[in-house]
Specification:
There is one protein chain. This protein is mainly alpha-helical and 51 residues long. It has one domain. Helix content is 84%, strand content 0%. The chain has 2 helices and no strands. The protein has helices spanning 2-17, 24-50. Helix 1 (2-17) packs antiparallel against helix 2 (24-50). The longest helix is centred in the last third of the chain and has 27 residues, at 24-50.
């Protein structure tokens, strides 16, 4: 989860630095969806590791 979250923040930082994202609502939506996806991947990885 930490790797995916870090990658998300790096990509969002690049998008902000290049002015690709100018709307704060889009930025917040991408962050929430990205962190949710990272959490889902972490849960699935934990479940498959235990089996």
């Amino acid at each position: 989860m930490a790797l995916l979250s870090g990658l998300l923040f790096v990509v969002l930082g690049i998008l902000l630095a290049t002015d690709s994202i100018t709307d704060a609502a889009v930025l917040v939506a991408l962050m929430v969806v990205g962190l949710g996806f990272a959490g889902l991947v972490a849960v699935v990885a934990r479940i498959t590791r235990r089996k």
